[in-house]
Amino acid sequence: MMSGVLYKREMKASIRLLVIFGAVLTLYVSIIISMYDPELSALLDSYVELMPELMAAVGMTAGATTLIGFMCSYLYGFILLIFPMLFCILRGNALVAKYVEDHSMVSLVAAPVKRRTIALTQMLVLLTGTVILVGYSTILELVCGAWYFPGELDTAQLLTLNGGLLCLHLLIGGICFAASCLAPDTKYSVGFGAGVPILMYVIQMLANMGGKVENAKYFTFFTLFDPEGLVARESGALAGAALLGLGGLALYGLGAAAFCRKDLHI
Amino acid sequence: MSVICVDHLTRDYGGGKGVFDLVFSVEKGEAFGFLGPNGAGKTTTIRHLMGFLKAQQGQCRIDGLDCWRDSDKIQARLGYVPGEISFFGDMTGAEYLRFMEGYRKLGAGNRKKELLDWFELDPSGKIKKMSKGMKQKLGLVAAMMHDPEILIFDEPTSGLDPLMQSRFVELVAAEKQKGKTILLSSHMFEEVERTCDRIGIIRAGRLAAVDSVEALRQRHIRRYTVTLDSVQQAEAFAKDFDGQQEGCRVTVATRQSLEEIFMNYYGGRGE
Description:
The complex is a heterodimer of chains A (266) and B (271).
Chain A: H1 4-34, H2 38-50, H3 52-57, H4 67-74, H5 79-95, H6 97-101, H7 105-109, H8 115-148, H9 155-182, H10 186-208, H11 227-231, H12 235-261
Helix pairs in contact in A: 1-5, 1-8, 5-8, 5-9, 5-10, 8-9, 8-12, 9-10, 9-12
Chain B: E1 2-14, E2 17-27, E3 31-35, H1 42-49, E4 57-62, E5 65-66, H2 71-75, E6 78-81, H3 93-103, H4 112-118, H5 132-144, E7 150-154, H6 162-177, E8 181-186, H7 189-195, E9 198-203, E10 206-212, H8 213-220, E11 221-227, H9 231-241, E12 244-246, E13 249-255, H10 258-265
Parallel strand pairs in B: 3-8, 3-9, 6-7, 7-8
Antiparallel strand pairs in B: 1-2, 1-4, 4-5, 9-10, 11-13, 12-13
Transmembrane segments (chain A): 15-36, 56-83, 124-149, 161-183, 190-207, 237-260
Organism (chain A): Faecalibacterium gallinarum
Keywords (chain A): Membrane, Transmembrane, Transmembrane helix
């Protein structure tokens, strides 16, 4: 079903990006969590007062009274969305479209290995990277929470929240992988794989600013990811996350199926 | 039984490009030359044989298996060297060969070392920094280390120096000796003439002729016998024009260019 040798090679290629993004996440997550403090949080809230539109655009709103509420506001609007998304965009394109474009794919298909096996292996590489980034963030949040504010962070709530985050990144990874498999060349692979998630995020930023543009939220899948709702276990938020996850799996499947039927001009 | 069988293969790219109703087959143990100018459809045909492209009409079979559906089974006994080789540029040659060994699930008893010695190739450098000739050698080692019964070469010597070209010709001869089935595409008559038993000529996506090398040679080499005044003159003439001398008589031969051969097959159609 999958090629262990290929998986190993691709994971080796993923490691550098994972380390870099892991380091950036470590920095941001630990600093933001350490800033949770009624007084310092007043400082962040004062930023929100100063430039409400800008802070709202990246999902930061004032007045969080719990640590997890504070994290929802300051981590789940930007940092934890953008970095795993960048990983999906970069690796998604490199796993299939780039190999077809530079003809390295010849080595993979001119061997007694089914196309399905190649597609599933590359898919698994992207999924593994996504799970590692979300899993690492979860551990980091738990450790930082326990370090700075013992007993403040509810593990079950955090796991629900990050389960939703994983579903969101499944969808983003699915978009990147499907684009990589379907596109006739890397121009379109990058165009769709990077363009669609970034455009959706920009629409989300607009919608967050409120007012007339708030209706823009109906045009972006980021709306389905509702951190506060997930923490409160609202059924709407849980359904949204499930929808994201299922959509992601469907897109991964679509990409793999397309690759199996694709004409390779290599 | 034919090992490679192209049966009414058609792929129309529009604008007269593609291959049209192509029929030919390669027998077991035969070396078949696939000759045609650039853009005639050689690579397109080979991509169908490799299972990279799905036939629009007709089909390709290797060992009785469908080239699109059963490509993974076919690939186990097939070695392929593309014209424009490219590898994972981030690897060294040695890493690439080790990767391919693992990917193809080859045991320790494969021909990697023997082939590296044959081509006098040191694969320790980064592939990105290798010359075209070195990459070509690396491609040949990777394509042949599992000792395939069927070999498909797509313009294998383009860009190689003459020394390397004759190394390649020796290799093809040795593999043929072992009973391997070989398909070799080229746009140079000389190259296929030196290595193949039979030649198929393709032009504008259609097969113009299939003939034995001997028959083609007879048709396309013209000989002239010239009688000179003295043996000395004949000797000098033979030396200058690469002829066969017999007393005062010298026989010289001219070989038609590929274009002239094509003109012969398309004779007077104004192409």
